[in-house]
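Friendly challenge for the regulars: who can give me the structure tokens for this chain first? No prize, just bragging rights.
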Amino acid sequence: MTQVEAKEFRELCAACGIAVTHQRQVLFEVLKSTPGHPSPEEVYSSVKKQIPSISLATVYKNIRLFLNSGIFREVSLHHGSLRVEMNRRPHHHLVCTVCKSISDIDEEELGPMRSPGKLPGGFFAERFSIDVLGRCAACQQIPPDGDEPDDLN
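First reply, four minutes later:
Bragging rights claimed.
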């Protein structure tokens, strides 16, 4: 982490009321540099290389702290395991039903969305998160039940 990035991290923590620790700084750095939507176990594996004494429980606790403070977001709650979202741009997710990978797709690529706000029944939408379920390019090459690969084009 550069001095500028370290300063930005300290300022971000101060703005969110979070104490700056070495473990949190390494965890933040790993989360920011990991592509996709990592699980706590994936983050733990990377962080453990830098801090061998860290526990999985500490990684979970600090990820939850980052999520609760709004530094990062949680990917859709119904995918079975916690996944961390670093992308702050308006976007949605392509979820592979075979390998469970999650990729981002820009909001504009799915067409116009209604602005968050009041919905019927008194529900107030804070943001929209659309999951497009299907098979990623790699999994389309895997024949389902021994058949030939799908030709989805």
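The mean pLDDT is 84. The helical segments are 3-16, 22-33, 40-50, 56-69, 137-140. Your move, everyone else.
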